[in-house]
Design a protein that fits this description.
binds FE2/S2 (inorganic) cluster; 4-stranded parallel β-sheet; 2 domains; Glucose Oxidase, domain 1; globular; alpha/beta; Rossmann fold
Length: about 575
Amino acid sequence: MKTAKDTHSLRSRAWFGKNDRWGMAHRAWLRAEGFSEAVFQSKPVVGICNSWSELNNCNAHLRQVAEAVKRGVWEAGGFPLEFPTISLGEMLMKPTTMLYRNLMAMDVEECITAYPLDGVVLLCGCDKTTPAQLMGAASADVPALMVPGGPMLRGMCRGKEIGAGTDIRRLWEQVRAGRLSEEEWCEVESCVSRSAGHCGVMGTASTMACIAEALGMTLAGAADLPASDSRRLALAERSGRRIVEMVHEDLRPSRLMTRAALENAIRADMAIGGSTNAIVHLVALAGRLGLDLPLETFDEFSRTTPVVANVRPSGKFLMEDFCYAGGLRAVMKEIEPLLHRDALTATGKTVAENIADAACFNREVIKPLAQPLKPEGGTVILRGNLAPTGAVIKQSAVSPHLAQHQGRAVVFENNLDLLERIDDPKLEVDESSVLVLKNAGPKGAPGMPEWGHLPIPAKLLAAGVSDMLRLSDARISGTSFGTIVVHIAPEAAVGGPLAVVQSGDEIELDIKNRRLELLVSESEIRKRLAAWRPPDPHYTRGYGRMFLDHILQANQGCDFDFLRARNGADRTPPPERFKNPAL
Ligand code: FES
């Protein structure tokens, strides 16, 4: 159902539509930028929320994308105004961008609500910028349309394709095992990241772009076009035109990001073999929308959604191949019987209408639903006495011989301890051992960094070991692979059972039955927990202190407790609330 919005009811009219002192001042000060009186004649004001930053290479092309969006907004009769937010560059920001996802979401929400915007186009790319913008837009609930920046071109080195993240990890292990020379390693550095855009595998950035499209928050086909493909700028221009229509239709995030849309996003995530991080971000997004999204939903959908995208790290190809094979639209066409086909999207059409003419052009890259790459979805949820409120494993990237495994724990108390001892020749470890990292969760690290891809000890690498069972309360990059359990909740730093695992304890993983067990008696676990003391907090002031005071656990999406919607209707403050009493 479309709701025509009268131009007089535009939100921006509360700023620009009055002939009083403040109306004049709002117009006059903006005219300092060289705008004529024509822009104030009832044109919808469209904010272009830009996460461009030279500190974030994945988003470094977004100024050009913003210009294309502006063209579209002007063409459709709108008035575009670009504004920056903080940007979260996965490579350079320490200790982790996840520490700042909620800060960026707050920045996005507050800019949208505080300024005279009738609609907003969200420009994102690198891992956390996409969920942060989705969360902020959900809370602001002003018509919003996302334009992801797209993946980078494939890396090429000595005739071989390399995908950022995934292949760097593989090659680094070869360096540590002495199988790759320093000269070759240096050459990889110059070849792996050939263009603007986010990592070119199905890592978190690609996953979240696919999720944004599956949620209905982008135009169809927006998820996978390479960043440097001219069609991305054309898509940005079309998005600029479309957001003006969305303002007139009052097509807000709350009308698009419904439970059905979230379920479609989870189906898509499973079918592409998406990043484990998507679970944390989708749970947080649901919290902003006032929707309950227990981890069990992911597991239920994982059991009934095959992986059809043959893309690294779960498969063989890169995002460029995925796009040329038909991209997310082709995947959604494959899994159409599993989707809510009538869910409304930002195009103004339903999911079924958007994918009506979608086709697959390469069956090596996107498999048919009847002959999938893997019979079940990429990520599954584990429970057990080691993870009472949940843990996550990317089963599509697991070594088959470790899917059911029992082994002796080799425990590292924190990341520093890990780095100091992992390559110690005297470390008592073999290929059946279970590497355990504690205090790497939301509070413990802090910020739940992607430390979960624990390195295999150098002496085992040299002996040809390529995978081991590893577990932690950290996250992993979406580009990671291997038998790695992450997101263990409650985390060690708040006294979860992980806190009292000791080297020598036996641990059992059983993916088929979704179990993760510490094979120690309950009475012994209780005794150890009674003697446990929390680590000192990392921050006593500033944003870090606020983070520690309000961060929720992984199974709750790691949002701040005060940012979740208290009910479905308290997200958009009317501009009248901010009328200056002095007027
Ligand atoms: Fe930005 Fe990988 S570093 S997506």
